[in-house]
Amino acid sequence: MRAAGAPAPATASDTGTAPAASGFSGGDFETFLKMLTTQIKHQDPLNPMEGSDFAVQLATFSGVEQQVRTNQLLEQLTTERAAGLGTLAGWIGREVRTTAPIAFDGTPVTLDVQPAAGATEVQLVAIDQHGREASRQTLNPTAAEILWDGSSTTGRDLPAGLYSFKLVSMKGDEILKTEAVGAYARVTGAELTSDGVRLTLPGGASTLETEVTALRDPA
Q1: pTM
Q2: What are 3-52's pLDDT values in tens digits?
Q3: Domain 95-216 has CATH 2.40.50.140
Q4: Phi, psi for 11 (deg, rounded to 5)
């Protein structure tokens, strides 16, 4: 009971004082900021908030801000990853032309031969998985897709394994250009890596998306 004429005790609704920071839950960054600002504006100047209490609320405020930003970042990363995984499905079952090593198991491999302009002779060089020249053969200096059957320089078939190819374009004795040759292989899998999209090819081969120079449906 209070004396007549005595002022009524202040309440949270009278002063606009926000609930304690420890009770803050389910809100967001802007809500918490408004609550803290209102509390500071309406506190009794003759009985201000203790410095330690104010420090606790500021610390809570900072923690809430960081949590909101972390949640936003996680949501963004989840959305981007889901979108990225969705694009991987489009690679499966397609044929890609890549300059990365591809697997040879006795079945002819389709190569895309593109001689340099003015070449009178071209040499196709096959390189094994150890970086050694496995075969070299002379081709007509015309652009075309050819089937490489794994024949070696000695006439014997090359063993199964991973091979890459290069084309040496010549005019007489002059080498005009040496460049990688694209080989076709079917994609059997795909994954997101720190280097980008990596596509899985038959026989243990793989290629990065950046090494792919063409894409098509299997014949």
Answers
A1: 0.60
A2: 444 444 444 444 444 444 444 444 566 776 777 677 767 666 656 555 55
A3: no
A4: -120, 170
